[in-house]
Request: fold
Amino acid sequence: MSVFDCLKRLCPPALPWVTGLLGMLATGPVLAAGYPEHPVRLIVPFAPGGSTDIVARIVAEPLARQLGQAVIVENRGGAGGAIGAAEAARAAPDGYTLSIATVSTMAVNPACHHELNYHPLHDFAPISNIARTANVLAVNPELGTEDLPEFIARLRADPDTVAFGTSGHCSVNHLAGAAFEQATDTRMIHVPFQGSGPAVVATLANQVQALFDNLPSSLGYVQSGQLRALAVAWPERLRQLPHVPTYAELGLPSLNHPVWYGLLAPAGTPPDRIRILNQAIAAVLRQPDVRQSLSLQGAMPAANRPEQFAEQIQQQYDWAREVVEAQGLAVN
Ligand code: GLU
Reply:
């Protein structure tokens, strides 16, 4: 017999009170008295200047205004996001250490590294998705390839001579590069960085000639002509880059996979704090200035509920396992 049944038998008249109390004990206090009382850390699992960092810094200040406490962005790049994600997973589950979820940390890393020291599905409490964005393949204009067919021809003529930069080993951009090589039967040299920020800088300096990136970190350089975009992964052409074809248009639909960023707390964070954070980020993403800032960077605001975000993570996790393992992509 459960404690609940026992109490029901002993004192039926007090049943409503007892069930209410037990309900509170089961789900945590209904109100988060005084939360947050001090600044909140927001771990970005990539270097400064990358798309994750850009999105985090757009939402951090308005989120701080919603919460009435500072939100401090901390970059923890390395290992395709796995270092920062592991630190975020191990933080105290008190709502004072949050992190940005990416397709790399929640799906590709786990499919690629079998010995990760965090579990994307068990170690986090999803709060909300923040934004979705396209992937982009760009080159340094000095490579001299004007479009994707010319780029592919160049790679076929001289395999293993063009280097591509990414946000890290086992990142979603590494997967994009490997999938591109497989789909086009080409070979390049992979150069992983601690995030797209340094990968973009290396491409601008022509230390690597090509870049697989998520749009926010590359868009400004593509618009200014310092990088040349050859293809975007998005269902249709982007308003921000109307002259750049999608992979699907170019006959490579399997590469047309977009990405997203979301907000996480460590598993075990009280549900009332998750609720407060979900409402706060949803309010942030309704603000016209925030929506415009994200959109100028090529990121489309897209909030959802914690259970929807958890389902989204699960779907991407399953997708990445399938793509990395079943199709045998050369991510190693
Ligand atoms: N979402 C990208 C990744 O997961 C971002 C890299 C970055 O922000 O530097 O690889």
The chain is about 45% helix and 20% strand.
